[in-house]
């Protein structure tokens, strides 16, 4: 089987800018996104949703061009069939059940009723909502509403999935199942483009990451590569334990420790270290000396910290 031309296997932005009057949405974005799971990462206002709306044809660029596997937003019928979109906002027609929501969407393609029913049940099954399919969406929990939106996005078998904060509101079990579904979809050769502001989620699911700040792309690539850019910056770790003061005395003996201070609630210690890997290893030995360690977790493992490390709080392009 002959592989498709490169242009038809990429989500491509060429020098794209989008302004809302005098307000910047995104500026001078050039990207070539391959198949797999790609995370758009950034705080509110960074440009994630603008990029997603550009991919789905909901808005047009002020300048530059967008091509989704070779298709432009100027061909909306082809784009509609090619892209599945799940927004972060809940906006469901009143009175519909989960099944009716998916089925009525698929009927827009003009397909026979039997096909729409079959595809509806397949999508609902993939997000594990069969038991709730005939319940009204108005009675769904936040997590169930997230899953029914995802089911609609995948129901017509699109090659590109654009998912805006799809893991919000999911309990740990459903979150793990949803991440597994993302991996299945990516393994089928699709583009799964996910927005997030939580870096540890990005670590779990992404093949590559695009960091956005104030409408600019500030970094892109494999998550390991982005982490290597911040390896020299101290990392803050929260250790929950029964004797935080004793732990503080011990960690100050380590040459990689920049700072150690008691947590405000008195139940833990905040440590800054330049070598997190070495610190974790030494912590195992400290735990054997009578200090009961309950949990250890990065305290600043989020995208805002990465921004500070990469751009020093300044807007890119200035």
Q: What is the secondary structure topology, with strand pairs?
A:
Blueprint: E1 11-20, E2 23-33, E3 36-41, H1 48-55, E4 63-68, H2 76-82, E5 83-86, H3 98-106, H4 113-126, H5 142-154, E6 160-164, H6 172-187, E7 191-196, H7 199-205, E8 208-213, E9 216-221, H8 223-228, E10 235-241, H9 244-251, E11 257-262, E12 268-273, H10 276-287, E13 293-298, H11 303-311
Parallel strand pairs: 3-7, 3-8, 5-6, 6-7
Antiparallel strand pairs: 1-2, 1-4, 8-9, 10-12, 10-13, 11-12
Describe the structure.
With 318 residues, the chain is α/β, with parallel strands linked by helices. The protein has two domains: 6-229, Rossmann fold, CATH 3.40.50; 233-311, 2-Layer Sandwich (Alpha-Beta Plaits). Helix content is 34%, strand content 27%. It has eleven helices and 13 strands. It has helices at residues 48-55, 76-82, 98-106, 113-126, 142-154, 172-187, 199-205, 223-228, 244-251, 276-287, 303-311, and strands at 11-20, 23-33, 36-41, 63-68, 83-86, 160-164, 191-196, 208-213, 216-221, 235-241, 257-262, 268-273, 293-298. The strands form three sheets. Strands 5-6-7-3-8-9 form a six-stranded mixed β-sheet, sandwiched between helices. β1 and β2 (23-33) form a beta hairpin. The protein is globular and about 70 Å long.
């Amino acid at each position: 089987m002959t592989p498709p031309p490169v242009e038809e296997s990429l989500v491509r932005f060429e020098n794209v800018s989008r302004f809302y009057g005098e307000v910047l949405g995104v500026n001078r974005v050039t990207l070539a996104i391959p198949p797999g799971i790609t995370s758009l990462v950034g705080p509110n206002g960074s440009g994630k949703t603008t990029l997603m709306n550009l991919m789905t044809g909901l808005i047009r660029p002020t300048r530059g061009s967008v091509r989704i596997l070779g298709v432009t937003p100027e061909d909306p019928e082809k784009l509609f069939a090619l892209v599945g979109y799940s927004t972060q906002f809940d906006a469901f027609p009143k009175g519909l059940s989960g099944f009716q929501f998916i089925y009525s969407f698929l009927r827009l393609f003009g397909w026979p009723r039997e096909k729409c029913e079959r595809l509806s049940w397949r999508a609902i099954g993939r997000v594990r909502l069969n038991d709730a399919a005939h319940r009204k969406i108005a009675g769904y929990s936040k997590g169930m509403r997230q899953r029914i939106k995802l089911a609609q996005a995948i129901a017509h078998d699109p090659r590109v999935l654009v998912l805006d904060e799809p893991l919000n509101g999911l309990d740990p079990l459903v979150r793990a199942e949803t991440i597994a579904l993302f991996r299945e979809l990516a393994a089928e050769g699709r583009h799964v483009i996910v927005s997030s502001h939580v870096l540890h989620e990005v670590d779990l699911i992404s093949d590559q990451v695009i960091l956005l700040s104030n409408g600019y792309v500030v970094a892109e690539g494999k998550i390991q590569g982005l982490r290597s850019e911040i390896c020299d910056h101290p990392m803050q770790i929260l250790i929950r334990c029964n004797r935080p003061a004793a732990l503080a005395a011990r960690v100050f003996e380590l040459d990689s420790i920049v700072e150690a201070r008691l947590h405000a609630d008195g139940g833990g210690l905040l440590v800054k270290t330049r070598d997190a890997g070495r610190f974790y290893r030494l912590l195992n030995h400290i735990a054997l000396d009578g200090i009961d360690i309950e949990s250890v977790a990065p305290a600043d493992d989020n995208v805002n910290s990465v921004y500070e490390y990469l751009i020093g709080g300044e807007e890119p392009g200035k």
